[in-house]
Amino acid sequence: MASRSYLTRSPEETIELGRRLASELQPPVLVVLLGDLGAGKTTLTKGIVAGLGAAPEEEVTSPTFTLIHEYGGAKRGAPRVYHVDLYRIENARELETLGLEDLLAERAVVIVEWGEKLGPALRQLAPGRPVVEIHLSAPSDTERRIVVRESGVSRHRNGEAQSQESE
Ligand code: ADP
Ligand code: MG
């Protein structure tokens, strides 16, 4: 699978990267964010959602308690975006009650924080769907390593994805 690696040095740079990644996303697509607490998953999501035109970045907050936030849709003339946080999900049954399949059946961008919790459900969830997997980690307080892996995504603009380093 093709992968690209970036290093950001501030939350603003991470948001900017999210905006750039948004321009490559064609719904329906599943974006899976993996990484520890504070790795920058919600920060990156702000940029993706804003870049898609679905909501301003300050409206994008962690759906830790509500589990799913919805942005965009026809009213905004932007794709519908579902922002899901699986942090509190403890087992497969709880995962099922979220109805992720239904969200994925729509022509939407579905962004999932704590994608680790999908486990083997990931492949069953989105058979044949383009999936973008983004691994985030924190080499230091202010730096974030962000690795993007895509499968089944047609890269209509830049041709074949390749390794690159920002800045
Ligand atoms: P997560 O959703 O993965 O738990 P958040 O995006 O909510 O993470 O939080 C990331 C935290 O790390 C924020 O407090 C942010 O200010 C801080 N931070 C420091 N440097 C960066 C960076 N380069 N990119 C993103 N966040 C950063
Ligand atoms: Mg978060």
Offer a few descriptive terms.
167 residues, single chain, binds adenosine-5'-diphosphate, 5 helices, Rossmann fold, seven-stranded mixed sheet, 24% helix, binds magnesium ion, alpha/beta
Please describe what this structure looks like.
By secondary structure, this protein is an alpha/beta fold. It has one domain: P-loop containing nucleotide triphosphate hydrolases (Rossmann fold, 3-Layer(aba) Sandwich), CATH 3.40.50.300. It has 5 helices and 7 strands. The chain has helices at 11-22, 41-51, 92-97, 100-105, 121-125; strands spanning 3-8, 29-34, 68-73, 78-85, 108-113, 131-137, 144-151. Strands 1-7-6-2-5-4-3 form a 7-stranded mixed sheet. β3 (68-73) and β4 form a beta hairpin. α1 (11-22) packs across α2. It is globular. It starts with a strand and ends in a 16-residue tail after the last strand. The chain binds adenosine-5'-diphosphate and magnesium ion. Residues 8-11, 13-14, 35, 37-43, 62, 113, 142-144 line the site of adenosine-5'-diphosphate (ADP).
Q: Can you summarize this structure?
A:
The two termini are 24 Å apart. The chain has a single domain (3-108, 115-124, 142-151), classed as P-loop containing nucleotide triphosphate hydrolases (Rossmann fold).
Average of the residue pLDDT scores: 88
Q: How many domains in all?
A: 1
CATH superfamily: P-loop containing nucleotide triphosphate hydrolases
Question: Could you say which small molecules are bound to this protein?
Answer: adenosine-5'-diphosphate, magnesium ion
Assign a percent range to the helix content: 10-25%
CATH level 1 class label:
Alpha Beta
Structural class: alpha/beta
Number of strands: 7
